[in-house]
Specification:
This protein is mainly β. It is about 0% helix and about 50% strand. The chain contains no helices and 11 strands. β4 and β5 form a beta hairpin. The chain is globular. The model has no long low-confidence stretch (mean pLDDT about 95).
Length: about 120
């Protein structure tokens, strides 16, 4: 089992920046890929960014490319999402996820472990 706890969500003005953190615990040695997803009420959860734990291969959704950066600190079992140039449409609950299997990087149904989420609100 893997436990995930997100932090760093806040309310910011458009154009601002936030860094989300995800702390992993439990059987972290089994994790092969970590991802950040987001969801707004009434919409399907969408993949934002993903990183492989061994080779650090990253993937980003088109809406966030060039603005968001995913990174990890394996020694601390932490994953981060640096979000710059935030837009009102980035407003959502952001979730950290982990998988012990080979997955489609931004497909939320492939991930087994999930955190409780952290709210990001961007005002215009």
């Amino acid at each position: 089992q893997v436990q995930l706890v997100e932090s760093g969500g806040d309310s910011v003005q458009a154009g601002g920046s936030l860094r989300l953190s995800c702390a992993a615990s439990g059987n972290t040695g089994s994790i092969r890929r970590m991802g950040w997803f987001r969801q707004v009420p009434g919409k399907e959860r969408e993949g934002v960014a993903s990183i492989g734990t061994i080779y650090s291969t990253t993937y980003y959704s088109d809406p966030v490319k060039g603005r968001f950066t995913i990174s990890q600190d394996n020694a601390k079992n932490m994953v981060y999402l640096q979000m710059n140039s935030l837009k009102p449409e980035d407003t959502a609950m952001y979730y950290c996820a982990a998988s012990a299997a080979t997955v489609s990087p931004l497909r939320f149904t492939d991930y087994r472990y999930w955190g409780q989420g952290t709210q990001v609100t961007v005002s215009s």
